[in-house]
Amino acid sequence: MRRPAVRLMSYGIPVLLVMVAPLLVEDRFVLKVLTFVGINALVVVGLALLFGYAGQVSLGHAGFVGLGAYTSAYATVRLGWPWLGGMAAAALVASLGGLLLALPSLRLRGHYLAMATLGFGEIMFIAFVEAESLTGGVDGFTGIQFASVAGFDFRTPAQNYWLVWGVTLLAAAVAYNIVRLRPGRAMRALHGSELGARACGVDIVRLKVQVFVLSAALAGLAGALYAHLVGFISPSIFTLHFSVILLAMTVLGGTNSIAGPVVAASLLTLLPYVDAVLPGVPESVASFLSDWETDIYGLAIIVVMLFAPGGVAGLLRRAGVRRTRVEKGREAA
Amino acid sequence: MRMRLGVVCVAVASLVVAGISGCAADGENGAGSAEEPIKIGAILSETGSYAGLGESEINAIQLEVDAINEAGGVNGREIQVIIEDDGTDEARAVAAATKLIDQDEVVAILGATGTGQTMAVRNEVRRAGIPLVSMAGGSVITDDFDPLVFQTPWPNRLVVPYILDVMAEQGWTEVALITDAGGYGKDGRDVILGAVDEAGATIVADETFNPGDTDMSAQLTKIRAAEPDAILMWTAGSEAVTIAKNRVQLGIDMPLVGGPGIARREFAEGAGGDAEGVILAAGKILLPETYGEDTEAYQVVTDFIGRYEERFGEQPDIFAGHAYDALHLTVEALKRLPAEFTSEALRDEIEATEGFVGMDGTFTFSADDHNGLTEDDLFTYRISGGDWVALDE
Amino acid sequence: MELSELLQFAVAGLKNGSVYALVALGFTIVFASTGVINFAQGEFYMLGGMLSVFALQALGFPLVLAVVAGVLATTAIGVVFELLAIRPRKDGDPLALIIITVGGSILLQSLTRHALGPDELPFPAFTPGPSILVAGAAIERQTLWMWALTAAAVVALTVLYRRTAFGKAMRACAIDRDGARLMGVDTRMMVTASFGLAAMLGALAGIATTPLTQTAFNVGARVGLKGFAAAILGGLGNPVGAVIGGLLLGLIESLSVAFLSSTYKDVIALVVLLLVLFVRPQGILGRREREKV
Lengths: 333, 393, 293
Hints:
Structural class of chain C: mainly alpha
Low-confidence stretches of chain C: none
Low-confidence stretches of chain A: 325-329
Number of strands of chain C: 2
CATH class of chain A: Mainly Alpha
Strand content of chain A: under 5%
Distance between the termini of chain C: 54 Å
Largest sheet of chain C: 2 strands, antiparallel
Mean pLDDT of chain C: 88
Largest sheet of chain A: 2 strands, antiparallel
Number of helices of chain C: 11
Number of strands of chain A: 2
Radius of gyration of chain C: 19 Å
Structural class of chain A: mainly alpha
Strand order of the largest sheet of chain A: 1-2
Shape of chain C: globular
Oligomer: heterotrimer
Shape of chain A: globular
Order of helices and strands of chain C: HHHHEEHHHHHHH
Number of domains of chain A: 1
Number of domains of chain C: 1
Number of helices of chain A: 17
CATH topology of chain A: ABC transporter involved in vitamin B12 uptake, BtuC
Distance between the termini of chain A: 16 Å
Radius of gyration of chain A: 20 Å
Helix content of chain A: over 70%
């Protein structure tokens, strides 16, 4: 087993780099893009647990993101609640939504579960559009203020970057700890074989619901953070396409890993902005990339899935970055 | 394990503190030195469902930027329009605005192509304090008033009462509505419902469809059962063609009326014979002769049409016109300013626009009118033989 | 409500339904042989329309030839896609392949926009002329074509599956892939054939609808979603179910406009779908999956 110091460095260094970035990056736009990365990463942490560990497919998580975004927007702008209240409300409402969806959907397996979550996501989208008095409908919800704690406003890109990545890293750490403990092993058992897990005494119903609700809560938090970051939300952000991309990020990230999906999410989110983020890219290259960015995006997904079967996590494992006792044990078997 | 979590917490805490304790303050949006080109940003839908509209707008802007620079630019300085694609997506529009403001430091933003994207960008623009000149037609853009935001197309707020009056003149007071549930259609519907009473009309059917729907015969069947005098359709997309075709196929002979959303060649071409007799209201750019051949407007419009056709091999549509107006309004304001100017000054100068002759009409802004057009800039057309003619012809 | 009105709603529903049915068939065929939900199915629908228009306008083909060319070209694209993007994934993990089809869908859509432009494009009706009146309801000639094509597809597939060795091999592959391989079936070719067949069906639906709705690079997504829902409704993996699911979905949508509200047409269809799923998770005609321990 690797020495604790080495393991510490293999996590500590990336974390430190992430936190230090605003001190190294001057460009406000790049910082904002990196903040968007953090928001997607937050949702993906939840999806990594749900799918990567527990093997449950969701094609409707954009609905939870939207639920959190609108809840926090409504709470802070219409009800005058403080930002922390909005955050809490967002997580709560999203969790409730997750609960309401998870309970009847439990009997569904595989593609049928996917369809149910897809249906939920679509219904949420329509709800965002139709509930005009609550959400502003198609015109969207404007005037959402910056995050603010005890009178201090998070105004600058760097401040918002730290806020978002602080939350995301915390969520990742919590997820990581969950995975190590009994729930994690139970989740993996669930993924492997439901019948087998039940035979081993795992309460799979409760477990499925818990994981689903947790992933919904994280998605809701991410949505709320987005709302306060940008100041404007509208239904067309929370679409099936977004849910599909979130799932793609998770799958690309590889199973049985939190870091893998987070890295995959980061890369996929950054891909359309490559020309803006990398300094010194010549104009012609930048405009070519910008013109073909969607094609490159689609191609990248295919290429990674073909040539890196274990996803990003697989790549990381091969690079020796991440090995847990459980995985080492399994590989030895 | 516990140590790892601890490290993360300490790192988070210490750097949140570091962040709070200050970052570089915002700089003001400078206008650059007198030698560099003036940078204007544009957020257009090059991809996504509004790609067709965006393409025309990009063409128009490229054409006009070259023309303006060849004519000496703005008081000797060249202009440069940096175009970002929003993919007909709000989130990407916001990201595009952020890039234009933070990285390119533009003095104003033209766009977006769509109403939703324009509304999304308003927040960014407000935080930066620079003017936004939109090419989208939703009333909400100027109804939800913001001193920084201007709009070039004929807004629904203007066109709807006009078209309702036209319908009343024809004796069509019992009106059936069919609108799309997207931003433009919904906005149109809201304005229509608000304006019917004053126009003396009644709505006997109110059907909607979603962007991307492929068949509206169910809605039209319901409409037929309500026996309206005429059908008023409000949409900007290709669904209009489907509605026109469904109507003919179902044998419905009540007249079909629409707004600027169908003032596109693609509508007449796509619907073919089924577009015959469809009535619509839009600006005079479709038939420049309606300006009167001795007016400045006629000269300006036919000149643009000619140059556009020469460069791109096809006639410009109304969206090219919207983009032309947005660019020129900004440039004209810039010309009236000294070499060093602030964002407020640019905004004020755009607002001071008076009698600017553009593609959509003659613009005169004021402190509470950021649309600048009047009913005089509108005209009623009928589609005949695949082309637009005056209604009474 | 008069009979003719009701009939009209039914006609509209069955018209859309036949489109959904063809797309759903495409989903179900691929699923049956690979366990994969092909997210690019909607793009096959789009390509059928776009490529036929291209053949007609840019290449000057006569109408019939343009339709055939468009459908065949799309079939070829489906086959090439399978060979390049699906087959190389050796472990055949369905979820990974699903994500690959997501990437494929994005890529196909974007390439089409680059190649053929962003505007919507028209196509003439297969046979021009006014609608046919049946008991007061107007049926467009193109609708008759759509029904004919759907029926022909169903008949052809049935013959393929039941009478030909090839079709039986595909069915064997769907039931038990390893078993089929043991019996000498080239399962890899079956997978390629499924994608080709799915592409052909999607393309047929696409070009049959284009005269009514026009086509554009981005029309695939919505129809794909509806087709997927229809396949699920009818029971994923069951071709008859796909057709029934498609027709049923179309009727539900049309009747909700008729009796409820056009605003909520999509919600109603979704709610019905979810209710069916919660009550009968395997869909109308699906077989209850027995979990193997």
